[in-house]
Design a protein that fits this description.
The chain is an all-alpha fold. The chain has helices spanning 2-68, 79-95, 102-138, 146-175, 179-222, 225-230. One of its GO terms (biological process) is Golgi organization.
Amino acid sequence: MLDQLSAALESLHDMNRKHQLVSEKTQALHEACEQLVQEQNQLSGFAETISSKLSYFTELEQLGQKLNAPSFSPSSDHFPVLLNRLDECIAFIESHPHFKESSVYLARYKQQLSKALSSIKQQFIHTIRSTTQSVLQQQHQSVGMPETSYSQFYGKFRGSAPKLKSLMSEVELRAEKSSDYTTLLQDCLQCYISQRRHLLSPSVTATLLELTKHKQTEYSSLVPCHSIRDYSPPPPPSF
């Protein structure tokens, strides 16, 4: 009986040792799994950080394809998004000059930005000049009425304004932050002023000459020539 009890106790002690060993291994495995999960999360975060930074370089080709696409137009709804991304990529690379080949990518991104801004300038100049030529071609049909002059000089430009408003709004928003946009804005304004001067100068000059002639006629009718000719100043007072 005692031998059986001793054997049973020994078996219990052996089972307890094995249970303790299994518990220790299970705990170690659990801790190892938690460590692996933590490392995986850290690696995932690190990979996302690398991927987010790498996107500023990998998008170079994608943006270039969009700019070179046959259907590309600065009037499209996607154009502001493209400008935003170009600005973001340029700003990021300029703030990280220590990255490998950053100077190469910066130069290529600026080339793409220059191409995008050139498309804005070309469309603006083409629209303004086309509108000016359209007005000049119809001026010979004018009957001299104010309504007709207004329709020619301002109405057609109002009709073209929606095509350019969104583009110039995007340029104005960025002009304070980038000299490229400032130069573009100045060039567009100079083109607009030049075309408006070319269109309005003859009409303004003719109107001023007509007003001058009209005022001279009114003055002549109010003051007869013989009154001016026969007028003699009074003698000076004697002291």
